[in-house]
Please model this.
Amino acid sequence: MYQALYRKWRPRTFDDVVGQSHITDTLKQQVAGDRLSHAYLFTGTRGTGKTTCAKILARAVNCHNPQNGNPCNQCPACLGIENGSILDVLELDAASNNGVDQVRALRDEAVYTPAAVRKRVYIVDEVHMLSTPAFNALLKILEEPPSHLMFILATTELHKVPATIKSRCQQFSFKRILPGQIAQRLDYVARQEGIDLTADGAALLARLADGGLRDALSLLDQCSGGRQRVDEREILDTLGLAGNLETAGLMEQIALHDTAAALETLSRLYANGKDVGSVLSELSSLARDLLLRKTAPQGSAALLTGGYDEATMRNLGEQFSARRLLQILSLLQQATADLARSSNRRTDAELCLIRLCNEELDESLSGLSARIARLEERLAQGVSVQAAAPPAPPASGSAPARRTSAAVKAAPPPPS
Ligand SMILES: [Zn+2]
Model:
């Protein structure tokens, strides 16, 4: 039977866990030094390794031959826990067992020493889903835990866990995993699986996974299905993100001040059933990513969100100044907010696009500063201000204005 990649490549020791060394190092030391707590609370977003670490810890504390705090994964205890034949280690999903009865049953059972291993370990996933009576029953055990008992609670929503429970647990918070670390792991898994994953493809999947390694591996699974080569194009197609290229095209039309083409694109997307609000918000997150790449080229990889390929981003990035991106972002934010109470969303979206394509029509401060920036740019290119001075045709769009400046550039310098 085919086994999903994220299950097949689930880490089996603390050393294999990616991006959470602040937690795994501590747990290893606790196991090696036998300084374990009777209750742990693992928090963090999904797919960051909470349940994986809980399973590893359950094996490590019972392992006959732990290796520097890691479970050996070979002794009868490790194997029995892994294949589920040792009932002293129990996993409970609070999302499906939120009743007080299950927790009371746990409480009654908890007093008995474990049958096959050193410690009875209860792993409670999504613990925030427990009902209030169930939390109270759990609290009773946590108040006076027998020495052979260990609880590992995991949650994605810490704020829903009562303070009385939190204060009795050692709390570890799992971080979103950095895209670079995810890409590295994807690359490793792909090589082991004989999948030809390109470096750009790995980086794109890592961005899309938003800090969760499990999601990243599931995406790789989905994109590689039967194929040998997985690149950016393949990923965008498989995940239905090819539509992003429309957004990128729209951004390019804004860069070229091509109002007519931009309106045409919007009208086509509208005809295909796309909501104008989501077009604007996609433009907005694209502008944000472009701005981040420009202002923090080194650190920004961790902050980017979009499903765009590297070549598209580089090409677009070259066409905008940071100031112009700021102006575009503030126009888009304003328009998106106004759209919520608009009576004609399509017209408002069109007006927004027209303003985006013509800085001249944006009378806000950021619009003015974008225009100044453009003038400064022209000055830097050696166009005389005096020559550029003849009054621009009244607000008829920027295309004629551009022709003027091109003509000026070609003309000989005025006699002095
Ligand atoms: Zn072992």
Remarks:
- The beta strands are 39-43, 89-93, 120-125, 149-155, 170-173, 196-197, 229-230.
